[in-house]
Amino acid sequence: MAIPVTVADDSMMSRKAVLRAIPEDWDVEVSEAKNG
Description:
By secondary structure, the protein is α+β, with helices and mostly antiparallel strands. The chain has one domain. Helix content is 28%, strand content 33%. It has a two-stranded parallel ribbon. Strand 1, helix 1 and strand 2 form a beta-alpha-beta unit.
């Protein structure tokens, strides 16, 4: 069962950095939020 993860930041660079920090072997369902 995938764990839902929301990455919220106005900066695309920050969102990408957080997404890169999530290990590949984790079962996650990622949503992104911007312009908050």
